[in-house]
Write a structure and sequence with these properties.
The complex is a heterodimer of chains A (about 190) and B (about 450).
Chain A lengths: L5 H32 L5 H12 L3 H18 L1 H10 L1 H22 L9 H26 L17 H10 L12 H5 L4
Helix pairs in contact in A: 1-2, 1-3, 1-6, 3-4, 5-6, 6-7
Chain B lengths: L2 H40 L2 H35 L1 H34 L6 H30 L4 E4 L2 E5 L1 H5 L4 H29 L5 H35 L1 H8 L5 E2 L3 E3 L2 E3 L4 E3 L2 E3 L2 H7 L5 E2 L13 H32 L6 H29 L2 E3 L3 E2 L10 H34 L9
Antiparallel strand pairs in B: 1-2, 3-8, 4-7, 5-6, 9-10
Helix pairs in contact in B: 1-2, 1-4, 1-6, 1-12, 2-3, 2-7, 2-12, 3-4, 4-6, 6-7, 6-11, 7-8, 7-10, 8-10, 8-11, 10-11
The chains are: A mainly alpha (about 190), B mainly alpha (about 450).
Chain lengths: ~190, ~450
């Protein structure tokens, strides 16, 4: 049995944080997806229930992604830099999704406006709840597929669109991609 | 535009947007805590209603602060991979601590916002303490990392790579005490004046009810104490910068030749090509006196350094002048308010004073933003002072132009929507507020 190093231990903690984010914030994102596709006579009651369930906890659940980012750049700074360069596009789109999701949810629940006035934000809440986990999942899949390389000494890696090629390959019909780790994020990208 | 300029533009926009919410996240919990405390102590329904009203506005403000802060965590890597690859492990400790502080703030804010009816009044009031403390702690921790960029210590590097880190020494670097304290009191200053501006506007529009009569003096109490402290810590910061980063200091003062008995230049336009500042009001020997205590001391000017190490002198000098000028005017406003209050034994609500207070709100935000302009523009061309140039840290991605455009639109949309919702919230609360005046003691 090989000895665990300190780096393995830290990576394990980050994996736990990723799991916590995927499970806890994943449920909040799921609430947003439900909100987007809610239909029928009880649509209003459903949306109210989602808002009531998410309201007190989503900000605390959201902290896990910050913990993850900070932990990653503290313990593995060159990896963080390499991922940021190689996965610029999915990270930026996911970030926009995270910003719009949080803002839209808050505007809706604390907005005190007449129904309908905030309809665009309602749509943004639902759409961003799909976009953010989908692109985080795409980033995870690109890492899992081995398409990001951190060369020692240099922090620039493969091209900045390689994540897409990797994901398309993994998602293409006929391919049977494996699931990696806490897979709800990857699942959200449609690659599991 | 090249990647360095675009990266700085995106980062600057994100920071400038986030910091408005960040300072309110530091100051508002303290105001809410005091208002609720007085309400419980005196069984005063209006104070309690004030705390509830502020909590509703704060829920919106805090959420926008949280998401815009998340943007910064991502952007550190997305825009500055070279910087993060080098310094991630050095500044990780204060960032992690900030994460925990934010965690605590988010949890207790959840209890606070949703606990009005579920917790006992005392327990509810006590949940305000961790919110106020962790809000202040977040600011202290984050500013530590900026202080490290100004005074990089606590690590050993070899061949461009960090090989040993002393995280505590990095966090508590030479710039930490002055930067941390100055930013913390500035957060209370901005909150005080921003809240005062809201209620001064309310008085002007004839909405001056029991809540206004409580909110304005409380906000002005915070504002006047904080502006006094901001003046003292600002003076300390300036004198510290004179020794730590003499180029930044020379730029903020618009001083080109190294001068014995240097004058203080008030206003004026620095002309870097001609190595002089024109149109300034000069007070002889005052800069030397303020900086060292000796009117004949020698102050190093920009000319003592190679020109490729100069920051943008125009921006740094203008920003510094604006910060000091507005800061002094704000302090004067606060003192005038309390002078009139003491003389009349009642909080003043004269029209001219209220108009000045309405202007003081945005002015306090400008003061704080220009202060950061001095810090950040003044440190250029370095991202880590004396260690790494900003140009060596920026990302190489080709997608920065569209990113900048999109983020500008997003921040604009968020800012406008938030402003509209806060106005709407105020309107609704006013309509419900009438019964409070006559509410019986509970």
């Amino acid at each position: 049995m090989t000895d665990l190093t300190l780096a393995d231990g830290v990576a394990g903690i980050l994996l736990l944080a990723l799991t916590a984010y995927a499970v806890l914030a994943g449920a909040d994102f799921g609430g947003g997806v439900w909100d987007l596709f809610a239909a029928g006579p009880r649509v209003r009651a459903q949306r109210t229930a989602i808002a009531a369930a998410m309201g007190p906890v989503w900000e605390a659940n959201h902290v896990w992604v910050i913990f993850l980012l900070v932990g990653l750049f503290t313990a593995f700074p060159t990896v963080f830099a390499a991922l940021s360069v190689a996965l610029y596009l999915p990270f930026t789109i996911a970030l926009l999704g995270i910003i719009l999701r949080g803002a839209a949810f808050t505007f809706q629940t604390h907005g005190y406006e007449a129904a309908g006035e905030l309809a665009p934000w309602g749509l943004a809440f639902g759409a961003a709840s799909i976009i953010a986990p989908a692109f985080l999942g795409a980033a995870l899949a690109a890492v899992a597929a081995g398409s990001v390389h951190a060369r020692s000494g240099a922090n620039v890696t493969t091209g900045w669109v390689s994540w897409l090629a990797a994901d398309l390959a993994r998602c293409s019909p006929g391919a049977r991609p494996r699931c990696y780790g806490p897979s709800s994020l990857a699942a959200a990208s449609g690659c599991c | 535009m090249d990647n360095v300029v675009l990266s700085r533009a995106i980062m600057g926009t994100s920071l400038g947007f986030h910091i408005v919410f960040a300072v309110l996240g530091v100051g508002m919990p303290l105001l809410m805590f005091v208002a609720e405390g007085i309400g419980l102590w005196r069984h005063d329904a209006a104070w309690l209603a004030l705390a509830r009203r502020w909590a509703k506005a704060f829920a919106l403000i805090f959420a926008i602060g949280a998401v815009s802060g998340t943007a910064l965590s991502f952007e550190l890597g997305l825009l500055w991979p070279g910087f993060m690859a080098f310094s991630g492990s050095i500044i990780g400790l204060p960032f992690s601590a900030e994460g925990f502080a934010f965690f605590i703030e988010a949890i207790f804010l959840g209890l606070y916002l949703y606990g009005w009816e579920r917790l006992s009044p005392l327990a509810h009031w006590l949940t305000g303490i961790p919110i106020a403390i962790s809000g202040a702690a977040s600011s202290l921790f984050v500013v530590m990392t900026n202080a490290w960029m100004n005074s990089p210590t606590g690590y050993v590097a070899s061949g461009g790579r960090v090989i040993r880190v002393d995280p505590l020494a990095a966090a508590f670097n030479r710039s930490t005490p002055t930067e941390d304290v100055h930013m913390l009191v500035s957060a209370y200053l901005v909150t005080g004046f921003a809240v005062a501006a809201v209620y001064a506007a309310g008085f002007l529009r004839g909405h001056g009810d029991a809540l206004h009569r409580r909110a304005l003096p409380l906000a002005m109490a915070m504002a006047v104490v904080a502006s006094g402290l901001a003046g003292i810590t600002g003076d300390t910061s300036s004198r510290f910068v004179a020794g730590e980063q003499p180029i930044k200091f020379a730029a903020q003062e618009g001083l080109f030749p190294t001068t014995k008995g240097a004058p203080l230049a008030i206003g004026g336009v620095p002309l870097p090509d001609q190595h002089r500042t024109v149109l300034a009001i000069e007070i002889p020997n005052l800069l030397s006196l303020l900086t060292t205590g000796d009117p004949n001391a020698t102050i190093k000017g920009l000319d003592a350094f190679p020109q490729d190490l100069w920051p943008n002198v125009l921006i740094v000098h203008f920003s510094y002048q604006l910060m000091v000028g507005l800061g002094l005017a704000l302090g004067f406003c606060g003192l005038l308010y309390w002078f009139l209050a003491a003389r009349r034994r009642a909080p003043p609500i004269d029209r001219w004073l209220l108009l000045a207070l309405v202007a003081a709100g945005p002015a306090s935000v400008v003061t704080m933003e220009t202060g950061w302009f001095v810090t950040e523009f003044g440190r250029q061309p370095w991202i880590i002072y004396g260690v790494m140039r900003t140009s060596a840290a920026a990302t190489t991605t080709p997608a920065l132009g569209p990113t900048f455009a999109i983020f500008l639109l997003v921040y604009l949309g968020l800012g406008l929507t938030l402003a509209r919702l806060l106005l709407r919230l105020a309107q609704r609360e006013r309509q419900r507020a009438a019964p409070i005046e006559t509410a019986p003691r509970r």
